[in-house]
């Protein structure tokens, strides 16, 4: 059995089409059909039942497909590790993003980048705004996705990604969940849930109270998931970073509502930051892929 035949078979199943699979594998439809038949002949079993222009997997085909995907994944990992060992060095990119970030764009960018550069070791860390800034300043990461809280510095590349609308998440049991939007005045008697590590709680509290104008009544969660659990339990409201109405939907027990001031939804800028002295191909490439993910989301 040829390894390439296994790849052709799994691609046909994933695409649900011989024609599309052939295009993705850069061969003709007749060639990929011949390869699948040759694979079945070498195994001595039928993997696909064909009827007119449609097909379905046999039980043997389903087994072969599931375990074939595992083998292909292991083979790709084997290839990457062999190249890494043979090159006597490990290229690495360290990226940080906000612990309370609720959008899908960052994850999508990581997926696209990892597929495009499988030889690169990608390390991801999370933190609050100041934690990420310190990591970048002292060389702990190469690039960060962060909100803009200070004037741009000439020491850094300040790559603006998006101006995002602000939302809050709160329990559907809250009376405020019936509103189409909320203001900070509406929220003045409700605790604000902030996602922050213990040593960053005072910094986050200071920013939200003094800079953003939030009521000085805070609860803290270590992770976004923990914050959402507190919101679902009707313990307070959760400001959600870098998200939109169509992205990263909250749990069914939670309602996401626009946060407004003076009749307009509050906006925040999100940027990719990195030190100019460390500018390199992979850093710029990841930043551009991330920008494309934000643009794609805005166009939807």
From TrEMBL:
<comment type="similarity">
    <text>Belongs to the LysR transcriptional regulatory family.</text>
</comment>
<dbReference type="InterPro" id="IPR036388">
    <property type="entry name" value="WH-like_DNA-bd_sf"/>
</dbReference>
<dbReference type="GO" id="GO:0003677">
    <property type="term" value="F:DNA binding"/>
</dbReference>
<dbReference type="InterPro" id="IPR036390">
    <property type="entry name" value="WH_DNA-bd_sf"/>
</dbReference>
<keyword id="KW-0804">Transcription</keyword>
<keyword id="KW-0805">Transcription regulation</keyword>
<dbReference type="Pfam" id="PF03466">
    <property type="entry name" value="LysR_substrate"/>
</dbReference>
<feature type="domain" description="HTH lysR-type">
    <location>
        <begin position="1"/>
        <end position="58"/>
    </location>
</feature>
<dbReference type="Pfam" id="PF00126">
    <property type="entry name" value="HTH_1"/>
</dbReference>
<dbReference type="GO" id="GO:0003700">
    <property type="term" value="F:DNA-binding transcription factor activity"/>
</dbReference>
<dbReference type="InterPro" id="IPR000847">
    <property type="entry name" value="LysR_HTH_N"/>
</dbReference>
<dbReference type="GO" id="GO:0032993">
    <property type="term" value="C:protein-DNA complex"/>
</dbReference>
<keyword id="KW-0238">DNA-binding</keyword>
<dbReference type="InterPro" id="IPR005119">
    <property type="entry name" value="LysR_subst-bd"/>
</dbReference>
<protein>
    <submittedName>
        <fullName>Putative transcriptional regulator</fullName>
    </submittedName>
</protein>
């Amino acid at each position: 059995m040829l390894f390439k035949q296994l790849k052709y078979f799994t691609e046909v199943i994933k695409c649900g089409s011989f024609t599309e699979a052939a295009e993705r594998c850069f061969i003709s439809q007749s060639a990929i059909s011949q390869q699948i038949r040759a694979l079945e002949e070498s195994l001595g079993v039928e993997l696909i039942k064909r009827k007119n222009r449609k097909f379905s997997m046999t039980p043997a085909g389903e087994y072969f497909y599931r375990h074939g995907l595992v083998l292909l994944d292991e083979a790709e990992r084997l290839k990457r590790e062999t190249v890494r060992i043979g090159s006597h060095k490990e290229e690495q990119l360290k990226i940080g993003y906000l612990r309370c970030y609720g959008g899908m764009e960052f994850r999508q960018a990581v997926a696209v980048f990892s597929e495009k550069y499988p030889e690169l070791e990608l390390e991801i860390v999370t933190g609050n705004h100041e934690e990420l800034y310190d990591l970048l300043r002292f060389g702990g990461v190469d690039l960060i996705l962060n909100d803009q809280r200070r004037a741009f510095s000439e020491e850094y590349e300040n790559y603006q990604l998006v101006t995002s609308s602000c939302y809050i998440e709160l329990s559907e049991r809250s009376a405020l969940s019936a509103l189409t939007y909320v203001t900070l005045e509406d929220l003045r008697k409700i605790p604000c849930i902030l996602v922050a590590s213990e040593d960053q709680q005072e910094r986050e509290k200071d920013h939200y109270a003094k800079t953003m104008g939030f009521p000085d009544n805070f609860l803290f969660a270590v992770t976004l998931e923990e914050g959402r659990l507190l919101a679902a339990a009707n313990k307070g409201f959760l400001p959600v970073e870098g998200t939109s109405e169509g992205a990263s939907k909250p749990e069914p027990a939670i309602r996401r509502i626009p946060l407004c001031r003076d009749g307009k939804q509050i906006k925040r800028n999100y940027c990719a930051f990195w030190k100019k002295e460390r500018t390199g191909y992979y850093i710029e490439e990841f930043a551009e892929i991330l920008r494309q993910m934000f643009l794609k989301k805005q166009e939807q």
